[in-house]
């Protein structure tokens, strides 16, 4: 399985973004810098989904205290996005240090950081 690193993405809010190598940084909120490490979600097809994942992750990161609650909040909101258009089989892993070995539906995986917190969001078939 190949992973495509994101060179840039569009969040429909005023944002500054910089690209360094395979990583993309966006400062939608200057205190919550986003660095996308791996993006398998098609930017041309699903840029709204990418923007939504980043937005709800930033909101949860700001409002929730526990990593498990952040993940739960993101999963719940993602499963309701566009009236469930993307299905209910989403998984979210949040933390500063974790390992994972996963299987995901092709085209539905993103791994990024908000500050020093890692976010792994993916859909299973």
Automatic annotation (TrEMBL):
SUPFAM superfamilies given in the database record: DLC
Functional summary from the UniProt entry: Acts as one of several non-catalytic accessory components of the cytoplasmic dynein complex that are thought to be involved in linking dynein to cargos and to adapter proteins that regulate dynein function. Cytoplasmic dynein acts as a motor for the intracellular retrograde motility of vesicles and organelles along microtubules. May play a role in changing or maintaining the spatial distribution of cytoskeletal structures.
Subunit structure, interactors included: Cytoplasmic dynein consists of two catalytic heavy chains (HCs) and a number of non-catalytic subunits which present intermediate chains (ICs), light intermediate chains (LICs) and light chains (LCs).
GO cellular component: cytoplasmic dynein complex; microtubule; nuclear pore
UniProt GO molecular function: dynein intermediate chain binding
Domain of life from the UniProt record: Eukaryota
Single biological process term from Gene Ontology: mRNA transport
Protein family per UniProt: Belongs to the dynein light chain family.
Annotated localization: Cytoplasm, Cytoskeleton; Nucleus, Nuclear pore complex
Pfam family, one: Dynein_light
Organism lineage: Eukaryota, Fungi, Dikarya, Ascomycota, Saccharomycotina
Name under which the protein is recorded: Dynein light chain
Keywords annotated in UniProt: Cytoplasm, Cytoskeleton, Dynein, Microtubule, Motor protein, mRNA transport, Nuclear pore complex, Nucleus, Protein transport, Translocation, Transport
Coiled coil: none
InterPro entries from the UniProt entry: DLC_sf, Dynein_light_chain_typ-1/2
Main location: cytoplasm
